[in-house]
Amino acid sequence: MEKLNEQAYNGFLNGKKVVILGGSSGIGLATAKAAAAQGAKLVIVSSNKDRVDKALNELNGENEGFAVDLANEEHVAGFFKQLGTFDHLVYTAGENLQLSNISDIALSDAKKFFDLRYWGAFMAVKYAAPHIKTGGSITLTGGVASLRPGKGWSLGASICAAMEGFTRAMAIELAPLRVNMVSPGVVRTNLWADMADADRDGMYSHISDTLPVKHVAEAAEIAQTYLYLMQQQYSTGQTVVVDGGYVLV
């Protein structure tokens, strides 16, 4: 039994190919590093070639990286056709977060906000699913804004809610392929880079004081949830909230 447990938890991704869209930074890169530690071969995809190359240097090993416009259907379709079969898909791609009251948001800008976070995931699932091997999985990314939105979160809350519904629908439509979603709380990543340093630090401090766990998550903490969903063969259509207790307070 001890040997079986070791096999289950040590190197469970040995020989598996994991594709991470948005894997050049933040939660995506942290997930890539965690998967590599479990023996996976990584395919890192981002729109920025320099960031892809930098991520590959951090990972080391025999991994691949591609610069792909994930908001362009032709590019996404061509990428997966070229890539061939693989085991797990992770979608963490997203632009810097923007907080604005609905009165200050132009409809054209609001629609663009969905292009990468929602439609990018939609296209990725559409074109990746036929290439995922038996026993593989898809793990998408949402957020707790849909569960506990604050002022200025009209777009973020809408996208997160849409992603939850999409995840459940795909779990049924693509069965037995497993489709799940990770819903993080506030995480220290470059997605907050558009905020002034003082504002960002103040936000982190305030949230840390409020949370039951008394700290804002690092990307590596959230990455463990993606690995769990790759490994957990009996979970599909689920949204796993990892928020330090944010929705409780």
Could you outline the blueprint of secondary structure elements for this entry?
Blueprint lengths: L1 H8 L7 E5 L4 H12 L3 E6 L2 H11 L4 E4 L5 H11 L2 E6 L15 H22 L3 E10 L12 H20 L4 E7 L2 E2 L8 H14 L6 E2 H13 L7 E4 L7
Parallel strand pairs: 1-2, 1-4, 2-3, 4-5, 5-6, 6-9, 7-8
Describe the structure.
This protein has 249 residues and is α/β, with parallel strands linked by helices. It has one domain (2-187, 219-241): Rossmann fold. The protein has eight helices and nine strands. It has helices at residues 2-9, 26-37, 49-59, 73-83, 107-128, 154-173, 197-210, 219-231; strands at 17-21, 41-46, 64-67, 86-91, 132-141, 178-184, 187-188, 217-218, 239-242. The strands form two sheets. It has a seven-stranded parallel beta sheet, sandwiched between helices. Strands 7-8 form a two-stranded parallel ribbon. Helix 2 packs across helix 8 (219-231). The protein is globular.
Q: Any descriptors?
A:
249 residues, alpha/beta, Rossmann fold, seven-stranded parallel sheet, two-stranded parallel sheet, 8 helices, globular
Alpha-beta classification: alpha/beta
Strand content: 15-25%
CATH topology: Rossmann fold
Distance between the termini: 41 Å
Principal-axis shape = globular
Task: Give the SSE string.
Answer: HEHEHEHEHEHEEHEHE
Mean pLDDT score: 92
Overall structural domain count: 1
The main sheet orders its strands as: 3-2-1-4-5-6-9
CATH superfamily: NAD(P)-binding Rossmann-like Domain
Percent helix: 40-55%
What is the chains' assembly state? single chain
CATH hierarchy class name: Alpha Beta
What's the tally of helices?
Answer: 8
Radius of gyration: 18 Å
